Amino acid sequence: MGATIVAPARASVAAEADGVRITGGSDFDMVVRRGALDIWALRCELASARAPALTRFVEARPDRLIYAVEGPAGRGPSFHFVARGDAAGIPYYCRSAGDGVPTRRRLDPMLQACAALSFRRGDVAEHQRATLAQDRRVAKRDGDD
User: Fold this and answer.
1) Number of helices (H) and strands (E), helices first, in the chain?
2) What pTM did the predictor assign?
């Protein structure tokens, strides 16, 4: 994935299943993936799958979800996020990784980085070609020549 994102100085980037993980200090740990994400479906999934650990949804918007889970004993809640975006027609989403952060405010640098992500020109052109080819296949299949 050829993309540009704002991250802390000396941040590290590593390939991860279908995306990249960006780590920069104790308060910047996120994963970025290409593709669309249904925030509302994820909210339902989190509510059912994390029921014992999920303490509350802090913010639920169509483009992002912020939630708190029980932290390790005596440390209070841990805050996490998932946010989706679209850069030059390419859908993507970001999510916190690891153990989250101890306060809601510490998510802000990751949320800002996610919102400002941009793809390299070559990836945008590749995405446009692939989308056009897919549209043509669907039109041909459906008889919309």
Assistant:
1) 3, 9
2) 0.78
